[in-house]
Amino acid sequence: MPELQGVLPVLRNMKDFERLLESHHPYIIFLEVRLSQLQVLVRTAKKAGKKVILHADLIQGLKTDAYGMEFLVREIKPDGIISTRGNVITLAKKNNLLTIQRLFLLDSHALENNIKLIGQVKPDYIELLPGIIPSVIEEVHQKTGIPIIAGGLIRSAEDVELAYSGGAKAVSTSDSELWEL
Description:
Elements: E1 6-11, H1 17-21, E2 27-30, H2 35-47, E3 51-55, H3 66-76, E4 80-83, H4 86-94, E5 98-104, H5 108-121, E6 125-129, H6 134-144, E7 148-151, H7 157-165, E8 170-173
Parallel strand pairs: 1-2, 1-8, 2-3, 3-4, 4-5, 5-6, 6-7, 7-8
């Protein structure tokens, strides 16, 4: 399993694409991209030496079922997948992709249910949103033993440090001002 660490840039705005291609970041996370753009974007990123992680749930025009995942694996060839759905993570794992299970911290009940899901699915990483609650980052890591990526509501260098203080291995953000931390 590749080790994700530091700030992971999340591409939400296409105007930042060229900048990321020229950056030192080995990974680019694609968020909210159209299916019709995906193949060209991934191919371009890979030519620039980048590894690509796709948020499968947010690819506009893609249904994240077995056929949609088959298309991603065979035609798009990402290096990793992010999803809130256990079945998507399971399919990605079967195809030897890096897997990141995204969890939204809504309340204690949702947290416990998600930890049970994580135990069944066993992704490579867990992305917690919002990623600014160090005690919950620490708790989820202790209960699962899976490395944590903090994401969501990361707005400052202090937020990044707060996530690291809770034990996050990496921080994902679409805020380009934070990419060079």
